[in-house]
Amino acid sequence: MRKRVGLTSLVIFVLALSFFLLGIAKPPDYVLDESVHVVRARAILNGTTDANPDHPPLAKMLMALGMKLAGENSFGWRMPGAVFGALTLVAVFLWTQLLSSNYQVALIATGLTLLNNFLFVMARVAMLDVYYFEFVMWALVAFTGSLTLDVSLARRRSLVVLSGIFFGLGEACKWSAVVTLAAVILVSVTSYLRGTHHLRQIGVLTLIVSFLFLPVIVYGLSYWPWFYRYHRPFTLADVLSENVYMWRYHVTVAGNAAIDSRWYTWIFRIGPERGLSYLVGNYVVVWGGFLALLNCAWKFCRSLSLPEGLVTLFYGVNLLQWVIIPQHRTVYYYYYPCAMFLTVALAIVLGQMQDRRILGIRPVVLVFVAAALMFVYCYPRMAALDAPYDCALGCWN
Question: Residue 340 to residues 122, 297, 303, 346: CA-CA distances in angstroms?
Fold first, then answer.
């Protein structure tokens, strides 16, 4: 089974990367927040001053690396995101496999994630979310593996340590990674107190080092190449100064009435975000996933089952964070992590319905066909196809 899962992961990565790279250079101009992030990545590449470092540097350094390898053009600044998007899809497959111990359910989650529109769009634009969330998903793979795999204690501890490192890398791309880390800490404390999922074997020291100290250390070290690039001394005071600036920026920056929206409107949004490759969640996947999530929440309340509990928790914290975060700007693409967890919730529920039939057809087949049709309808605009192909299947009115 491990060889099968490993080979499947490789195939998923190659196919997803090829799909994401197809026509990725279109449009050649900036898409939404690319105008901010690419300019700052180019500043890192050329060694010029980044006048407004409003996010941690790792994702921007990765974009700069892409431009170094492929040129200062739309392909160069978007190509690394496609790689990270493909890695994210592999992580979704592995995480669902670990949660469900069911190869078919993992494949269902992978297919639905590819069709949910969010991953396709975010993997093809030079923005921070695909970078930080890729590290978050691999952190969840490592953490969940430490709970569910039949491995030695040393390997369990190694997986927890690896999870903490990935969370630190995610935070070094965007602070939003802290939210899921906080949820993992909550799960760890609860499971430790209940004596479940090997947490007491792993030990308090390993958990504290992995989830409290390692992410901070990795986050701080991510600044070293950035400071080195600008010939600045790498000191704790300078790192803290940069982060104080970022905090003040995010709590004071004004919103944009043209694109801002309230977090609760994202769940059943109908219209696309025209400035971001006509992004809108695949109705079949995200709406069906939300109903599946309610089912998961109900089952967790009844039986405290781990798969349903984790997917519900991670969706909830990533959505409800916007109730308390003191930031004026909230845009639709912030729903990206939640949409990804919805696909896993939908896959779990569909996996439990494999023996059922609707008009002689398995529910998973009906969902996949409907989701594929919706994705195909959205594809020409999401992929920025030239006229008349952009409206070959109809245009948004």
Answer: 12, 16, 24, 10
